[in-house]
Design brief:
Helix content is about 40%, strand content about 20%. The chain is globular and about 45 Å long. Helix 4 runs parallel beside helix 5. The strands form 2 sheets. It has an 8-stranded parallel beta sheet with strand order 1-9-8-7-6-5-4-3. The protein has a two-stranded antiparallel ribbon with strand order 2-10. It is of the alpha/beta class.
């Protein structure tokens, strides 16, 4: 049987369910026929995770106001940022009752000692046991690591008792990695997982096209993939933000335009406009996002 697929939301900000209430009335969606039951659809979100940057985390007074206890929260490690920022947010999430999942970005480390210091700090200060290992988006590595396999094969994850590891998947391709190299990397990740005692899964880029996800999953399964898949879906964001991320790869621009074509913004009533304005003002003040899209 195929590996199970789990959906997670990847987003920045801190949506407030109370203030976002009723925004669905502002958007008029085209009618469509559901093939799956509502119960099956809702089950895909069981155990979802979310994502936060250290910068946006500063605008969240209390994560417990927005997330259920035990939720996994990915914490980014962006190029040029300080590792202590990711450590600090991870520790805060742990103290508030969540499972921090910091990003280990191969190309961001200037030397192996920096990676080891990062892992040591994450484990000792935030009690981290799960990480997401990715290559990173910068073209030229800052140090000795150019891809995630080098991190996996370093032995440092085992040294610091990491128990669960996410690795990258690309249903809609990658702007700087060929399809052949993506396929080879997926095989290498499966091989590494077979020889490891860790719990390994695939976490995909956030996607806009269901057909691409299904086709990709079938392809990697035919090629021997046995790892479970956590599929990224766009979380709350402005249209401008969604388009900016989609433009990172030409194919994704087409997908997001098709995605947005199903959303028709109607003229809101005075009551809706008032609630929408309050939502915008509240989220702007807190550094969050305007509303839920999709």
């Amino acid at each position: 049987p195929p590996p199970p697929l789990f959906f997670f939301q990847a987003h920045q900000g801190n949506p407030d369910p109370l203030w976002s209430r009723g925004l669905g009335d502002v958007y008029k969606r085209q009618e469509f026929v559901l093939v799956a039951s509502l119960k099956q659809i809702s089950s895909l979100l069981n155990g979802f995770s979310t994502e936060v940057t250290p910068a946006s985390a500063k605008n969240v007074e209390c994560f417990q106001s927005y997330l259920s206890p035990g939720t996994s929260v990915n914490v980014t490690f962006l190029p040029g940022s300080n590792i202590e920022d990711t450590v600090e947010v991870s520790g805060r999430l742990k103290n508030e009752g969540f499972n921090p999942v910091p990003h280990i970005v191969a190309r961001n480390f200037k030397k192996i000692e920096e990676l080891e210091l990062f892992l040591d700090r994450l484990v000792s200060k935030a009690n981290v046991f799960e990480v997401l290992v990715i290559a990173g988006g910068i073209a030229k590595p800052l140090g000795p690591f150019s891809d995630s396999l080098q991190i996996l094969n370093s032995g440092l994850l085992e040294k610091y008792s990491i128990k669960k590891v996410g690795v990258a998947g690309h249903p809609e391709g990658s702007p700087d990695i060929s399809e052949a190299n993506l396929a080879r990397a997926m095989g290498d990740k499966n091989e590494w997982a077979r020889n490891s005692d860790m719990d390994v899964y695939i976490a995909t880029q956030f996607c806009f096209d269901a057909a691409s996800i299904i086709t990709w999953e079938e392809k990697i399964r035919r090629n021997g993939n046995k790892l479970p898949i956590h599929v990224g879906i766009p979380g709350p964001a402005t249209l401008k933000t969604l388009i900016k991320f989609a433009k990172s790869f030409a194919k994704r621009v087409t997908h997001i335009m098709l995605y947005l074509s199903h959303i028709h913004i109607s003229e809101p009533t005075r009551q809706q406009r008032s609630g929408y304005d309050r939502c915008i003002d509240k989220n702007r003040d807190s550094g969050g996002v305007v509303g839920w899209v999709g």
